[in-house]
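Archive entry. Fields below.
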Amino acid sequence: MFDTIIIGAGPAGLSAAKILQESQKVLVLDEYFHAGGRLLGQLYEEEKGRWWNGLEIARRLIMETEGKSEIRLSTSVYNVELDDIYTVYTTAGVFKSRSLIIATGAREKSTPLPGWDLPGVMTVGAAQVLTNFSRVKPGNKGVIIGINPLSMVIAMELGYTDIEVAKICLPPKNKINDQTPKDAFETLVSLGNSAPSKFISFGTRVAGRVKPLHPAALKLFPKGGVKAMGLPISIKEKIIRINGTEKVESVTMQKTDSKGRPVGRKREIQCDFVCISDGLAPLSEIGSLLDLRHVYSEPLGGYVPLHSEMMETELPDLYVAGNVTGIENAKVAMYQGQLAAHRILGDEEAAICTLASINNERKNAKVKFHKDLIHGRETVEAMWKDLGKENV
Amino acid sequence: MTERILNHKILGAIRHEFVPFKWNGETIYGVEGESLTAALLANGIRTLRTHEKDGKPRGLYCNIGHCSECRVTIGGEKNQRACLTPVKEGMSVKQQTELPHLVKGDDSHV
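PREDICTED_STRUCTURE:
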């Protein structure tokens, strides 16, 4: 019997464990064979000369929790039940606890396209883990399909190892994907505004002539794309097919106008790997097992379990933390884990202080995963408060 | 052919201790404790299984245990996710292949 079980040994889960372990018996579960979650691949320059090295941060968190919390890796959770206490069914046995924290993180979304099942096609996250954690090249020359903060950051990371990125462009339009060159352009400009150092400075380069969101700015965007920080970004080109027999050999590219309509002939680009990136979505199956009410929020990345800004859920002693509550950076996830821990311990003062840190980080984050993130958070919080009124 | 990143511009240099393990009966080398997907890729192996129904090649996709595209047979145990399995010296890993057709049958793949 544990005081608290934490599902997920990433930034949120380990940060919660670090606080709880001082006075509680804590169990942390994770499916991966190494603790740290998605911190393990993260590497970007926050300010000139100041790097966010996720692997280092993970190592520190592991050192601080090892031996004090029980950490079980290579362990998958397949069911959770509540009956006075929480019962967690895992591939390593059944565990019970009074409190439970769901810190399962996120999954990567993918827009399918012809040829996406060929060996050599992978998510950008897969390429990130290979490159920065396993230190094995995903290939020598790649194409990235999908323009979003995650794909841009990872494209840069590939560059630190001399892996050639031949193109970053849009996926084909279909029922799932309807991102237009205009959407992609807005994404790039929004990244430019919160640029970690040199990030997407081209946004301002175009804006030097016209305002960034002026319709003319999109028209001025060169057809063949631009080189920004060594990245060949193209919002007026779409990859419509991935080609190869046994593995990826090339992609077929179609130029488009600023509305995304095909213009001119198709062209093939030789490459040996392709990354598909369609953003991240909260991984909330555990919440579903417990029949938690979920809320769909586009700015937060998809369905999130209904929760308060204090990380509480509808069920007693059940908390959520990290990307399962909405897609944000690892710093926010760490604070959310701390906040859940303070709430479990009933330390109101520390909880309020941590909440202030979250709001501060959210406002000043260098990379914003969605432009309406704060609005999305406010909507969920308002729904939570309404729920409170219902119950009164 | 892919290769290992021994010198990283930001993360610095790294040194490996290699251990032998078996891929479809053939001895290859990986770093103890790294994921099987990484070790196989570093050996130039991209096709981890052929699809159960149509026999088409499949490789790693998400590399963090969500998609199950990298299922392999490890020490006789089927459907193990290669991306979640660390390399151990002497382990035996096999590619999974097309399944026999229920009606037509086909014992060449069994």
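CURATOR_NOTE: Residues 193-213 of chain A have pLDDT under 50 and may be disordered.
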